Amino acid sequence: MQVLLWVALILFIAAIITPRKLGYSLGAVGWLFFALHWMMQPLHYWAIDDYFNVVVTLGVATFCGYFSFLMWKRADELTLLITKAAAVGGIFYFSFAEFSYLNHLLVAAVASQTTEILNVCSVPVIGADWNILTLNNYPVEIILGCTGIESIALFLGVIACVSAPSRRKLAAFFVTVPAIYVLNIARNAFVLTATGYNWFGSPENSFYVSHNIIAKFGSLGALVLLSYLLFKMLPELLNIVTNTFNMLTGGLNRAS
Asked: Among 52, 114, 150, 223, which is most exposed with the fewest C-beta within 10 angstroms?
C-alpha cells in the first residue's frame, strides 16, 4: 500500500467534512501529500525506460503541488469542490488499483462478461485463466485498464462535485457511467476478435492496430460524446471549468 497516497485521500475526506477554515488547510496539506506521491512515480517509469510516463507523472506532481499552494492561499469553495472531486474519484479508483481482492474481482468480472458477449455472437473465445482470454490459441490479458475504471472514477468525481439537484446528478450518472463500462466490454470484444482472427495481419500486428490505434481513438471519441452529454445534463459544470481555468492561470486572491 502506498502510504503517501492514502494519507492524501484521507486528508481530502477530512477537508470535506470538517469546518471550512480547518478544511481548507487540511485540503492543502492533502494536495501536498498527493504531489509527493506522484513525485515518487517517475523513478519506477525511468527504471523501465517509459519516458512518456516520467513526464506525465512529473506534470501531475507539479499540478498537485501548485494546487496545494492555491488552496492554501485562496481558501474558497472552488478549491474545496475540486478536492471533493479528487477524493471521490481517487478513493474509487485507487481502491481497485491498490487492493488485490477488488482488482481481481473487477478484472475477472470484465473478462467473464467479455467472453459471454463474444460467445453469444458465435465467437469461440475461451477463458484460459481468470484474466486471460484466448481466440484461435492467441492469448490476450485483461488488466485493470481494460475495465474503464479510470474514466468511471473521473466521471464519478466530476458528478459528485457539482452543486446541482440530486435528480439531475443521478440521471447524469446513469447516462454516463454504465455506458463507459459497457463500451469497454465492447472494446475488449473488438480487440480479441481482431487479434484472434488476424484482421490486420499477424496476431501481434492485429492486436497493436486494434488496441493501440482503433480502440484508443474510439475510446477518446466516446469520452468526448459522454462529456458533451454530461455538460448538457449538468450545465453547472461549465462554470466550474471556467473558474478553475481562471484560478490556475493566476487567480491567487484569497476569498473574502
From this structure: 52
**How much is the pLDDT for 254?**
46
User: What is the rounded CA–CA span in Å between residue 216 and residue 242?
Assistant: 28
Name the maximum alpha-carbon separation found in the chain: 66
Per-residue model confidence (pLDDT) at position 131: 94
